User: Which sequence fits this backbone?
């Protein structure tokens, strides 16, 4: 009887040891151990940079200033190309925006061309001494695969207004203003005929009022609109000879709209004539302040006559 009890005890002991070993083996997958598993969990938990969010200018085409770097996309944000330029140079001068978006009109981003105006330190003394920076245009004609850097002017006083545009593959213009003192500043227009590689300065318009806007409708005809502080009438200047000379356009405003339509926007081609919208300026309150006057010209912008009132959503 005693031998039977001892035998039973031995069998039970063997069963306990075997069961414990089997349980431990099943709890740990082959080829792993607890320290390694913990280390892997820590690594996978490391934060990754947030994906870039495009600011769209066209369908599929946009840019980003995230991570303190200008980047562009032509694929809805799936692929990005870095523009070889320092972000800060895009906002040089008199600018107080949040720098989360590019300055309006200071860049071009289309399937055919990516171009960005910027200013950086110049080593050339051209009259301003240490006052001012070079104005340049960095551009690409192959969606950012290669970049060219063009000097528009070696030195210019601190920028306020800036605009770049091309009317075709070769002809483009840059309009800038700077050196503002109260309600006076200097305005300059530059033109290119070789797609942006070289630029020439046009004649000065002879106006020192603050610039509102400007542009060219073709290679010969361009406009500059002045007056942004409490304007009482439009001040539109026109060139018909590629900026070699400028003259003030005559705008015939009906008595009903005197001191109402006070600021000229950039004229544009419409059928066989030119058209321009006159807005109410910063303090307009006629019919809510958004109504504009449409004026037409049949002599390339030298004289303008009233056509009609236009709702704001018709001019966008």
Assistant:
């Amino acid at each position: 009887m005693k031998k039977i009890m001892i035998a039973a005890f031995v069998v039970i002991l063997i069963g306990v040891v075997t069961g414990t070993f089997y349980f431990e083996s099943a709890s740990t997958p082959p080829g792993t151990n607890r320290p390694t598993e913990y280390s892997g969990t820590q690594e996978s938990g490391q934060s990754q940079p947030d994906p870039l969010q495009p600011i769209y200018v066209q369908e599929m085409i946009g840019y980003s200033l995230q991570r303190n770097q200008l980047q562009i996309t032509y694929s809805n944000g799936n692929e990005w190309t870095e523009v070889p330029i320092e972000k800060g140079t895009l906002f040089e001068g008199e600018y107080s925006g949040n720098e989360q978006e590019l300055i309006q009109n200071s860049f071009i981003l289309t399937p055919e061309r990516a171009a960005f105006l910027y200013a950086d330190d110049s080593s050339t003394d051209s009259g301003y001494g240490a006052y001012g920076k070079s104005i340049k245009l960095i551009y690409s004609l192959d969606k950012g695969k290669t970049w060219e850097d063009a000097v528009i002017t070696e030195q210019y006083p601190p920028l306020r207004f800036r605009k770049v545009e091309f009317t075709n593959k070769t002809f483009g213009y840059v309009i800038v203003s700077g050196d503002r003192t109260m309600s006076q500043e200097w305005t300059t227009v530059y033109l290119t005929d070789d797609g942006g590689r070289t630029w020439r300065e046009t004649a000065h318009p002879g106006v020192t009022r603050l610039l509102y806007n400007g542009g060219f409708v073709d290679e010969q005809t361009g406009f500059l609109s002045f007056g942004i502080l409490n304007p009482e009438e439009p001040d539109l200047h026109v060139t018909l000879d590629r900026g070699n000379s400028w003259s003030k356009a005559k705008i015939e405003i009906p008595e009903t709209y005197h001191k109402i339509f006070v600021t000229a926007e950039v004229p544009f081609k419409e059928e066989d004539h030119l058209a321009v919208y006159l807005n109410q300026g910063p303090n307009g309150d006629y019919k809510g302040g958004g109504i504009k006057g449409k004026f037409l010209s049949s002599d390339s912008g030298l004289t303008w006559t009233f056509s009609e009132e236009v709702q704001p959503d018709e001019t966008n």
In short: The radius of gyration is 33 Å. Residues 129 and 155 are 9 Å apart (CA to CA).
